[in-house]
Amino acid sequence: MQGVLAVVAALVAVAAVVVGCAAAGATPRSSGTSASAEPPTVTTTAVPGRTDVDPGGEISVSAPGATLRDVALTGADGRAIAGATSPDGHRWAATEALGYGKPYTWSGTAVGADGAVTPVAGGFTTVAPERVVRAQFAQPDDATVGVAAPVIIQFDGPVSDKAAAERALSIRTSVPTEGSWAWLPDDALGSRVHWRPKDYWQPGTVVDVSADLYGVALGDGAYGREDLTSHLTVGRSQIVRADVTSHRMVVIRDGQQVMDVPASYGLGSDPNRITRSGVHVVTEKFDNKRMTSAQYGYDLVEHWAVRMSNNGEFIHANPASAGAQGSSNVTHGCVNLSTADARAYYDTALYGDPVEVTNSPVALSAADGDVYDWAIGWEQWREMSALS
């Protein structure tokens, strides 16, 4: 019995030594912490040290398997950029665009499940453009348009990397619609790109256009100034059929003829006065429009004028040519109607309505202004895309 007690006493003594060794060593780690814990991995889309970060691109920090705490992105002025953390706490992303040529600094921490910590730190600078190019839509926003309406984006400076610009553009339609962008020559020393469907729009189609150009390198040191959006609704189908040999103008609305009126077209013996053949597009209309020509010596105000090309072709009232309307072509390229007929047509015309001029010996072309989209064949139009 005494031998057994001696053994027990010895074991207690050994246990006391073991406990004593633990108490005299390092401070015990908190629950869940391992001596071999690895600091969390932190990655950012805007890499610290970079000086050419896209200010309109994704700006985020991620720490898979860790929780981000107090993450902030601060500008040189001390203002924190708006941002949001994902529900799982693994990712933070800026929710506002950054400025061009500005420095920014990361701060915060990533804390692993085992308590290991990695700081979110470092700074970067966004790209500084040599020039900023502004773009704008030529068509009215939130408008109801005709079935031939093109989507037009005009840039106020040259765009040499047209492919990059075009990749930033998108068209969403409520009805599946085949179409394409095409880059057209620009007389304003900028650049312009048009989108048109292969065939006329289906009436009722809702069209949403996005041009996500901010931060996009457009070539030769140029960057997009801002993002743009445009919303359009295609209205009823209204097509003007203008056969210059008939001396009449016919209007077809939703497949039904609603007008057939006497008209006079451009004088056929003068190539400069011939009404151009091809599909024109209505772009503007005026109650009163001053029309002048130094070449032909007139300066007049005409009424109920609907522009169908930028070469000076209008559908408008002209009492002075009333005797020729319905029998001969005497105008300087316009479609002349009686005052009553011109007013009746004017009241129904929409931006984007097609005017189909036929049997004229001179075709509508680039020489006749900047909206000659439908004068270009579909395959050629597609080849005018920078991404074709």
TrEMBL record:
InterPro entries: Big_10, LD-transpeptidase, LD_TPept_cat_dom, Transpep_catalytic_dom. Residues 1-24 form the signal peptide. The active site is at 316 (proton donor/acceptor), 334 (nucleophile). CDD domains: LDT_IgD_like_2, YkuD_like. It comes from the Bacteria. Keywords: Acyltransferase, Cell shape, Cell wall biogenesis/degradation, Peptidoglycan synthesis, Signal, Transferase. It holds the Pfam family YkuD. Residues 238-358 form the L,D-TPase catalytic domain. Residues 33-48 have a biased composition (Low complexity). Pathway: Cell wall biogenesis; peptidoglycan biosynthesis. Residues 26-61 are annotated as: Disordered. This is Ig-like domain-containing protein. It comes from Actinomycetospora rhizophila. The lineage of its organism: Bacteria, Bacillati, Actinomycetota, Actinomycetes, Pseudonocardiales.
